[in-house]
Specification:
The chain has 333 residues and is an alpha/beta fold. Helices cover 37% and strands 13% of the residues. The longest helix has 13 residues, at 3-15. It is globular. Keywords: Membrane, Transmembrane, Transmembrane helix.
Length: 333
């Protein structure tokens, strides 16, 4: 039998494989393997097509063949959400049900990361992005880098509707305290997560630690105490942040396992009592095993953990008596 006939016979056999089996196989394939598999036959393409939507990276929004595109409207200063856009997004709803991981970045960030290897499309407005996110009801992992002054009600509602969301990473532009995004509207979203990352310009109301430092006071004000006490303890097990102004958020994180402050620990020395405040909150975290401050990593050993649990001690004795605190206290730190 010639090679051509063998190829045709093989293609015919592959085309008769049931949809359920093909889809089950696709669940164990990575993206390159799926792209190779959909070329076997039309049957495989139709069966595996939903899995192509499992992960949407930030640069894929700008790929020429990506079906979610922002139309250009002449003389319009800002992108708008049109009826045409709504219809096209709703048509993709069955495919977006398969999306479990989604990343989105504003155009300037994309240009900085991928230039000159990508041709940017027109930026999708916040209200349209909110609608798309609301269609990804099975989303587990969400990463957003948005250049906005505030989050609109539609966007906040779309995040609240993601009941299966486990990990959220949000990056806000750093433009100083006066232009920081307020974190309070997002607290109900954070409470359900397993992993949270907040990077950039975030603040709590108008009173943040920049103002607190200038007043020689880093403790929460009465209003902030009332605000923080309103919520229930979060499920968050891993929290990454880079703003001293978010230290008081640790009050919610009683189930924390890993804490990571993604900037130099010396920044904490600029604010009176910041390190003491962190320790105070860490005492309420019995599950805590790892603290990362910049390049310094402190982990509780199995022996230390066994001793602590046996003795009924609180969660961060190992941090206080470890080399981390000694290094943090050094004059040249």
């Amino acid at each position: 039998m010639s090679s051509k006939l063998k190829t045709q016979a093989g293609t015919a056999v592959m085309g008769r494989v049931p949809f359920e089996i093909i889809f089950a196989i696709g669940l164990y394939l990575d993206a390159p393997s799926i792209f190779a598999a959909i070329q076997l036959s039309h049957n495989w393409f139709q069966s595996l097509r939903p899995l192509l939507w499992r992960d949407i990276s930030d640069y894929q929004w700008h790929h020429p063949s990506f079906p979610i595109e922002q139309p250009y409207i002449p003389f319009q200063k800002a992108p708008v959400y049109t009826t045409c856009s709504l219809a096209s997004d709703l048509a993709l709803a069955p495919l977006l049900l398969h999306t479990t991981s989604l990343s989105w970045s504003y155009n300037h960030r994309i240009m900085a990361d991928y230039r000159p290897h990508i041709l940017l499309r027109h930026q999708i407005p916040q209200e349209r992005l909110a609608k798309i996110i609301s269609l990804t009801i099975n989303l587990v992992d969400l990463s957003l880098r948005m250049d906005v002054k505030e989050y609109g009600p539609e966007f906040l509602r779309s995040l609240l509707e993601l009941t299966k969301l486990k990990r959220l990473s949000m990056v806000a532009p750093s433009r100083g305290p006066a232009f920081s995004l307020k974190i309070e509207p997002l607290l109900p979203v954070f409470a359900r997560l397993d992993e949270l990352e907040l990077i950039g310009g975030w603040t709590e109301r108008k009173y943040d630690r920049w103002q607190a430092h200038s007043e020689g006071n880093v403790r929460p004000t009465k209003d902030k105490e009332q605000l923080l006490n309103q919520g229930k303890p979060w499920k968050v097990e891993r929290f990454k942040f880079d703003s001293v102004g978010l230290i008081d958020i640790l009050r919610f994180c009683t189930e924390l396992v890993v804490l990571e402050f993604k900037r130099s620990p010396s920044l904490l020395r600029m604010y009176k009592g910041s390190w003491e405040t962190i320790l105070e909150y860490l005492y309420s975290m019995p599950q805590l095993t790892t603290v990362i401050l910049g390049n310094i990593r402190m982990e509780e050993s199995e022996v230390q953990r066994s001793e602590r649990l046996a003795g009924g001690r609180r969660g961060v004795d190992w941090v206080e008596r470890g080399h981390l605190l000694a290094e943090f206290s050094c004059s040249d730190f």
